[in-house]
Amino acid sequence: MVLLSACGPRTESVIIPAVFRWKNDPSMNSGETEALERNRVQRVYQKILDIDWDPAHGAHPVSVVPVLYEWRNYGKARGTLTESIEFVPCIYITNNTFLKLDDGGTELLARKLLRKLAMERPERIHGVLLDCDWTERTKERFFRLAQIMNDSLDMPVSATIRLHQFARPEATGVPPVDRGMLMPYNVGQVSAPGDINSIFNVNAAKPYFEHTAPYPLPLDIAIPAFSWGAQFRKGRFMGILSEETMDEALTSGLLTGPMEGPFQVKMEDNDHLPQLHYGDVVRVERMTAELIREVTELARTAVNNDSTAIAFFELGATTFQRLDTSTVNSTLNAFGTVRYARTNEP
Question: Which pTM value belongs to this model?
Answer without folding.
Answer: 0.92
